[in-house]
UniProtKB/TrEMBL annotation, chain A:
Keyword annotations from UniProtKB, A to Z: Carbohydrate metabolism, Hydrolase, Magnesium, Metal-binding
Cofactor(s) of this protein: Mg(2+)
InterPro entries the record matches: HAD-like_sf, HAD-SF_hydro_IIA, HAD_sf, PGP_euk
CDD domains: HAD_Pase_UmpH-like
UniProt entry tagged with the keyword Hydrolase: yes
Enzyme active site: 32, 34
Natural source organism: Sarcophilus harrisii
Signal peptide: none
Protein name, UniProt field: Glycerol-3-phosphate phosphatase
GO cellular component: cytoplasm
GO biological process, one term: glycerophospholipid metabolic process
UniProt record similarity statement: Belongs to the HAD-like hydrolase superfamily. CbbY/CbbZ/Gph/YieH family.
Residues at which substrate binds: 234
Function summary: Glycerol-3-phosphate phosphatase hydrolyzing glycerol-3-phosphate into glycerol. Thereby, regulates the cellular levels of glycerol-3-phosphate a metabolic intermediate of glucose, lipid and energy metabolism. Was also shown to have a 2-phosphoglycolate phosphatase activity and a tyrosine-protein phosphatase activity. However, their physiological relevance is unclear. In vitro, also has a phosphatase activity toward ADP, ATP, GDP and GTP.
UniProtKB/TrEMBL annotation, chain B:
The protein, known as: Chronophin
Membrane topology type: Peripheral membrane protein
Keyword Cytoplasm recorded: yes
GO-annotated biological processes: actin rod assembly; cellular response to ATP; positive regulation of actin filament depolymerization; pyridoxal phosphate catabolic process; regulation of cytokinesis; regulation of mitotic nuclear division; regulation of modification of postsynaptic structure
Alphabetized SUPFAM superfamilies for the sequence: HAD-like
Sites where the protein binds Mg(2+): 25, 27, 231
């Protein structure tokens, strides 16, 4: 494949030589998961071997994912199951930074000192609710919500839970018009926060297909409530700051590896990390070129330092 | 230049004297919920007697034209014929009929919406996904109380085909109920579908001018002598400006006077009505006896 790389010298193919030089100056690699390590339940060819080789060279690995539908432990278990290793036992999950976990930390900060036990209306999974509960925030609303009665008058008359201080929007396979209506009602109460775990518009699945992502649900709530949500996940800094605090990271010696220009790469650029785009997921080289050539400065930012066809391309640089 | 002036006295009389026809929004203009705006039925009657045409342009995609006509009758408006009614459901059916092959192939339209919308589509000869198999060639997003993640995902699957149309009946973000509470509008559902698919929907309803095209197919309209009367700045008034009509905001619905004045101060003139009234009953005084 011909080398990409605009006149600005970015988005250069990460050859084995360049990779060796890069990795010599790097302590930590942060990986997105969907579209980088795996698609659905299938590990990318060579991806487990690449991570094993990185660990063998003493590199710290972190997994930074916008996925909010599994607990940290479940994520760690998936990493293990698909051959990506990682610490077992009580250390399991410590490498995994999910927006659900970071959202819980953020909300605890914001809802603290309210004088009443914190409570959130959650458009999301049990896993998200579990993360909230782990930091002392009670959840209501998880699961299906059928429309009661005959029309808007009826379902708007349904009683609300008292004391809800925030609406949290994550990946919610039970999302419905009824739940959207309820979320808007809570948001119309004074002081109620609106937090979205991430803005990903799609979740890639095996075979090139995809389903709607959390971003769609956040936009629906924002539109109906006429408010902007605070977003925890990539490319917002919040999730990186969460990782940096726990790991004690030096941005200069950290690489972000991802498949999406508008989340992974933008996060890396914003936080001063080196960035590698893998072509196994959402974004393509055409997308990069479009951003490089754009007149829009926010698009210009979304260009990686390097690209690889897949993270298996790192392996030659790690062999002795 | 639109300056949001109160419409009364001599200005009102002069404006109505040179007006040939009036386009009215319905919800928040003629009625609120099950209650007609006091004086609204009388206004329509007086317009008719004065030889002025009245047409009705509604973004509400829950209702078929037949249901809308029944609502007029039920709330005390007499003499309103189906031909005068332009709903986003009706116009969505027309748009899809124009853009899909004729006759419509089986199962061509995947609809996120209720019975009123579906009935209007079938009446136009369109064939709906879920009722028969066939490749889906258009996704139509309307007001859908049964919207779900599963339906969102199904819409996305169809929209992976770049030739599959994406159409929205309207993009209203929310609708008021009579007691000040709100329900989510088609706009919020359309936002979800657009975000997942990465596509922009073709919008049938105001402020898109498409419904005006539907109107002018059937009626001769001179924009310079036609009023647009509505309650929502971002839909009715913007629509009116885009169609070259004289715009009147009525304060019995969604938008408030201070919002119009804020747009004026900010220079967003296509959201500023030429005139405003407290209610459309105020227009009666401008009509010659």
């Amino acid at each position: 494949m011909a080398e990409a790389g605009g006149d600005d010298g970015r988005c250069v193919r990460l050859s084995a030589d360049r990779a060796q030089a890069l990795l010599a100056d790097v302590d930590t690699l942060l990986f997105d998961c969907d579209g980088v390590l795996w698609r659905g339940e299938t590990a990318g060819p060579g991806a487990p071997e690449a991570l094993t080789a990185l660990r063998a060279r003493g590199k710290r690995l972190g997994f930074v994912t916008n996925n909010s539908s599994k607990t940290r432990e479940a994520y760690a278990e998936k990493l293990k199951r698909l051959g990506f290793g990682g610490p077992a036992g009580p250390g399991a999950g410590l490498e995994v930074f999910r927006t659900a976990y970071c959202a819980a930390l953020y909300l605890r900060q914001r809802l603290e000192g309210g004088g009443v036990p914190a409570k959130a209306y959650v458009l999301g999974s049990q896993a998200l609710a579990a993360e909230l509960e782990a930091v002392g925030i009670a959840s209501v609303g998880v699961g299906p919500e059928p429309l009661q009665g005959a029309g808007p008058g009826d379902w708007l008359a349904e009683p609300l839970e008292p004391g809800v201080g925030a609406v949290v929007v994550g990946f919610d396979p039970h999302f419905s018009y009824a739940k959207l209506t309820k979320a808007v009602r809570y948001l119309q109460q004074p002081g109620c926060l609106l937090v979205g775990t991430n803005m990903d518009n799609r979740l890639p699945l095996e075979g090139g297909s995809y389903i709607a992502g959390t971003g769609c649900l956040v936009r629906a709530v924002e539109m109906a409530a006429q408010r902007q949500a605070e977003i925890i996940g990539k490319p917002s800094r919040f999730i990186f700051d969460c990782v940096a605090k726990e790991f004690g990271l030096n941005p200069d010696r950290t690489v972000m590896v991802g498949d999406r220009l508008d989340t992974d790469i933008l996060l890396g650029v914003t936080c001063g990390l080196k960035t590698i785009l893998t072509l196994t997921g959402v974004s393509s080289l055409e997308d990069v070129k479009g951003n490089q050539q754009s007149d829009c400065s926010s698009r210009n930012k979304m260009v990686p330092d390097f690209y690889v066809d897949s993270i298996a391309d790192l392996i030659p640089a790690l062999e002795d | 230049m639109a300056a949001c002036e109160r419409l009364d006295g001599g200005a009102l009389r002069e404006l109505l004297a040179r007006t040939q026809g009036v386009l009215f929004d319905c919800d928040g203009v003629l009625w609120n919920g099950e209650r007609a705006v006091p004086g609204a039925p009388e206004l329509l009657e007086r317009l008719g007697r004065g030889g002025k045409a009245a047409l009705f342009v509604s973004n509400n995609s829950r209702r078929s034209v037949a249901e809308l006509a029944a609502r007029f009758a039920r709330l005390g408006f007499r003499g309103v014929a189906a031909e005068q009614l332009f709903s986003s459901a009706l116009c969505a059916a027309r748009l899809l009929s124009q853009r899909l092959p004729r006759p419509c192939p089986p199962g061509a339209v995947f609809v996120l919406g209720g019975d009123g919308l579906r009935g209007e589509l079938r009446a136009a000869g369109l064939r709906l996904a879920g009722e028969e198999p066939g490749p889906v060639r258009a996704v139509l997003v309307g007001y859908d109380e049964h919207f779900s993640f599963a339906k969102l995902s199904e819409a996305c699957a169809h929209l992976r085909d770049p030739d599959c149309l994406l159409v929205a009946t309207d993009v209203d973000p929310w609708h008021p109920l009579s007691d000040g509470r709100t329900t989510p509008g088609t706009g919020s559902l359309t936002a979800a579908v657009e975000t997942a698919s990465g596509r922009r929907a073709v919008v049938v309803g105001k402020p898109s001018t498409y419904m005006f095209e539907c109107i002018t197919e059937h009626f001769g309209v001179d924009p310079a002598r036609t009023l647009m009367v509505g309650d929502r700045l971002e839909t009715d008034i913007l629509f009116g400006h885009r169609c070259g009509l004289t715009t009147v905001l009525t304060l019995t619905g969604v938008s408030r006077l201070d919002q119009a004045q804020a747009y004026l101060a900010a220079g967003q003139l296509d959201l500023v009505p030429h005139y405003y009234v407290d209610s459309i009953a105020d227009l009666i005084a401008g009509l010659a006896d």
